[in-house]
Specification:
mainly alpha
Length: about 280
């Protein structure tokens, strides 16, 4: 009975998370089609309440909030995906190498580099780079990748250190197989399920960071929409038009919740496979 409840809970979390992500992706997929509506200003229609024609109303410049949510979703998802993918690739490659050569000078050097990277919070580094280089998505991406690859590195390295002592890996090494073959054939498949969990949770965290930086004015340059920047632009009109803040804040919340629930379900599944 307990196992059945656990499976049911995991399935509910996974289906709910995937549904939320699918809704956000579907909305964002319409972003390019609605981009002209997201940028068109109509001061006669400023701060209009939600209606049938405009389900989320308009902002302080009379722009369609639904269109801006869709266009902003594209920007957030694409930038988050690039950051997470780059962080994952860098972290996995370095983690596998470090774990396979544990105790070597390269391993010790990479561990020190991880300590340095972890000393810089992503948001703080982005603010520092923005002050030196100016804002923009490239600055945000560099900051988030520099601080994000360490999670994947530590996971890949720890699993590699454990996996390299497995009997079948030792047998392969004695049989003359190369380290690259053994890593690709035996260790990487054990690492990937855990990496998928970390990457899914990382997507939610990265979207939160991008929205936070957008709120502070770092990221995409106006008038291109971004969820965090939309909240900042509507703050002066919070009492007059709360819908202008609720819409982007809700989009951020639901997107992060979707990735969090999906990551939790994948984590339970990975833990069950590991126990088996």
């Amino acid at each position: 009975m307990s196992r059945s409840r656990s499976i049911l809970s995991r399935n509910i979390r996974l289906s709910t998370g995937l549904t939320l992500i699918s809704v956000v992706v579907a909305l964002s997929a319409s972003g390019p089609l609605l981009e002209h509506r997201a940028l068109d200003q109509n001061l006669d229609q400023r701060l209009k309440a939600p209606s049938v024609q405009m389900p989320f109303g308009t902002d302080a410049l009379g722009r369609n909030i639904l269109a801006r949510l869709a266009s902003g979703g594209v920007n957030s998802l694409v930038l988050s995906s690039l950051c997470v993918t780059a962080s994952l690739i860098i972290g996995v490659l370095l983690g596998l190498t470090s774990g396979w050569l544990t105790g070597s000078l390269l391993d010790k050097s990479l561990l020190r580099l991880v300590d340095i990277a972890m000393a810089f919070p992503g948001l703080l580094l982005a603010l520092l780079l923005a002050g030196l280089l100016g804002g923009g998505p490239a600055v945000v991406a560099v900051a988030l990748i520099f601080t994000g690859w360490t999670d994947y590195f530590r996971l890949a390295r720890s699993l590699t250190v454990v996996g390299r002592t497995a009997p079948y890996v030792e047998a392969g090494r004695l049989s003359g197989f190369s380290g690259f073959f053994l890593l690709r054939r035996y260790i990487l498949p054990k690492v990937l399920p855990h990496l998928s969990v970390l990457a899914t949770l990382g997507m939610g965290k990265t979207i939160l960071y991008i929205s936070s930086l957008g709120f502070l004015g770092i990221g995409l340059a106006p008038p291109k929409p971004e969820w965090g920047a939309m909240i900042a632009e509507s703050l002066p009109y919070m009492r007059q038009a709360p819908h202008a803040i609720i819409a982007p804040a809700g989009a951020i919340f639901l997107t992060i919740l979707g990735f969090y629930l999906t990551g939790q379900a994948l984590a339970r599944n990975a833990g069950r496979q590991g126990a088996a």
